[in-house]
Amino acid sequence: MGTMRTFVGAAAVVTAAILVVVAIDAIPSPAVAQRRPRVERARGRRRPSRQRASIDARAQARRTIHAPPPDPLPPAPRVDETPDDAIVARAEETPADVEHDEDDHDEEEDRGVFAISAATHVPISIGASIYVRPPRFPIFARAYVGWMPEPYVTLVDGVLVDARAYDAAFSPHVRAIATGTTMASFSLGVAHQVLDLAAGYTLLHRMPQISRDLVARVMGQDGVAAPGLERRLPESFPAEVMIHMVHVELGARMVAFEHLVVRVGVRWDHAIAANADVSIDAGGEVELERAIDEAEHEVGERLATFTFFPSLVIALGYQF
């Protein structure tokens, strides 16, 4: 019995000694305590990439959960709420705008033309012309009024004398009659880009003073002069000459600086009728009246037969 107690007591002492040793071993030394944070940080750096990715995913999930909700999207329009006409108009909106802009551009380029020009028909006249063309139409109208200056008359007279249309003795009379002749014409034409083709009517009008010597020469050559007619005529007397003509003209019309107009063309005028009226008081002399009538008829026929001429047209003007 005593032996048993001794054994149990020894066992208890041994056990207590072991527990004390274990407890003492479990307490870390100061050096170990200082090395433990370094070890823990090294272990943290050596965490596998999968574990770091998992940590990042959890952090993103936390931010997503705590983020404010996004703004709600506007409701999509329902198809049945838009009329068919609105859908068609919306689909054609851009082409319509493009076409409208093109139309406006065309209207700006072709808004019609109104121009006034100084012109000359060499070697017939010097004057002015008016040109009108409506928008979007290639048809134009042109009116011209001019007069025949003395240098032009001299040039024409020299050509006719060289061509033996009459002798040089008639030159002074021709120059006196032709100088200052008024020329008026009206044309209708078609324009294509810079070219234009026109045709129309021309009127030559002159009211000269006719000398008795000229009448005697003309009537004497034609055999219609009455004996002593020149002695019964006044020294000079007024007359009126009108020549009706048609013309064609081909020209080129160019515009510079948006308003400056230059036109160059070639033209042909040809007489179709003419009449000459002499203002002489015959005093009841039948023979004199008959001679005057025959002279007027003869001059009219000659003018209608032999009056035709080409001309070079040059015009410079302003387009509004």
Summarize the structure.
With 320 residues, this protein is an alpha+beta fold. 44% of the residues lie in helices and 33% in strands. The protein has ten helices and nine strands.
Description:
With about 325 residues, this protein is α+β, with helices and mostly antiparallel strands. It folds into 3 domains: about 1-65, no CATH class; about 80-110; about 110-320, Porin. It contains 10 helices and 9 strands. The protein has helices spanning about 1-25, 30-45, 50-65, 85-90, 95-110, 150-160, 170-180, 210-220, 230, 285-305; strands at about 115-120, 125-135, 140-145, 180-190, 195-205, 210, 235-255, 260-280, 310-320. Strands 1-2-3-4-5-7-8-9 form an 8-stranded antiparallel barrel. Helix 6 (about 150-160) packs antiparallel against helix 7 (about 170-180). The protein is rod-shaped and about 200 Å long. It starts with a helix and ends with a strand. About 15% of the residues are buried. The model has no long low-confidence stretch (mean pLDDT about 75).
Topology (SSEs and partners):
Blueprint: H1 2-26, H2 30-45, H3 49-66, H4 84-91, H5 93-109, E1 113-122, E2 125-133, E3 139-147, H6 150-162, H7 171-178, E4 182-192, E5 195-206, E6 209-211, H8 212-222, H9 229-232, E7 236-256, E8 260-278, H10 286-306, E9 308-319
Antiparallel strand pairs: 1-2, 1-9, 2-3, 3-4, 4-5, 5-7, 6-7, 7-8, 8-9
Helix pairs in contact: 6-7
